[in-house]
Amino acid sequence: MIRVFPAQRIAQMKTDLVSLLYLAQGLSPIIGFIAHYFVVVNVPRQNYLIFAYLVICFFADGFAYFQMLPIPVIFNIHDILQFVIIITIYIGLFQQRAGLYIVITIVVYILGITTTVRLRGFNVYHTYMWALSSLLISAICIVFLCVANAKPKEFANNKDAYNTLVMTASFLFYFLAAMSFFLFAEFIFKKMSDEWARITWLYHNIIGLLKNIGLAVAIFLTGKAKVAEDPRKAVSPRPYRPGKYDADYPFTREHRDY
Predict the structure, then answer these.
(1) How confident is the model at residue 182 (pLDDT cuts 50, 70, 90)?
(2) Residues 2 and 190: beta-carbon distance below 8 Å
(3) In the chain, N or C terminus with fewer CB closer than 10 Å?
């Protein structure tokens, strides 16, 4: 069991860099709220889910900072809710592709969380479970990018392509980085000195801050992608037909045919 959770230390340190970055990470979802406010036309379903995810992050960090509830309970609930929201986002994006993989991912997560709760209860930090959920979400992001790469024409016709790519990149960056942190969290906060533990937590604050900014950028890019023209409706160029001014045409036949 972790000796002292960093948020509890940070609540006592009001001037150092760790505290400032923790507050910056906690307040960074506001950037996404502002971006969501300005995107008012043809908002895709995933934007509402990103907005809900940012709301959960905002309140989870706020409750932890002010210790309004037991901190382990706050972050365990946060992990469950974020997994549900992100899986819901990608269920909509996959559109019946990779359905079996989604089902397997959900089953693995349910088995993991039920086993963890039975063995450790809900009032301790489920750091290994957080690492597992980070791994599963990272894998979902990678599979989605592979599916998008396998169907480039279909993806190119999506006007929210930039939104989806930046969102996926933000999730992938954060959860891959957070997975390594959560795997070693027990060692970091039990064996390492307080100073090194704070520095390590600083790393988590930075990647969390960058992830929230990335999601705000994803919301802002809604509908900004240029949709590829339907090749069936494209006007074919007029074929070359020699005319009476053909001899005076200043280009060669190769250029004219092109």
Answers:
(1) confident
(2) yes
(3) C
Between CA 188 and CA 52 the distance in angstroms is 31
Q: Is 181 helix (H, G, I), strand (E, B) or coil?
A: helix
Give the separation between CA 190 and CA 193, rounded to whole angstroms.
8
Place of tokens 């959770």: 5
Q: What's the CA gap between 215 and 40, in Å, rounded?
A: 17
HSE at residue 16, side-chain half, CA atoms within 13 A, is 11
**Confidence category of residue 168, pLDDT binned at 50, 70, 90:** very high
CB 83 within 8 A of CB 137: yes
- Supply 202's token pair: 């600083």
pLDDT reading at 22 higher than 70:
no
Q: For residues 36 and 221, is the Cβ–Cβ distance under 8 A?
A: no
With 0.70 as the threshold, say if the pTM is over it.
Answer: yes
Nearest to 129 by CA among 104, 141, 111, 112: 112
What is the structure's pLDDT at 234? 40
Q: Output DSSP code: residue 225.
A: S
Q: Which of 147, 77, 61 is nearest to 113 (CA)?
A: 77
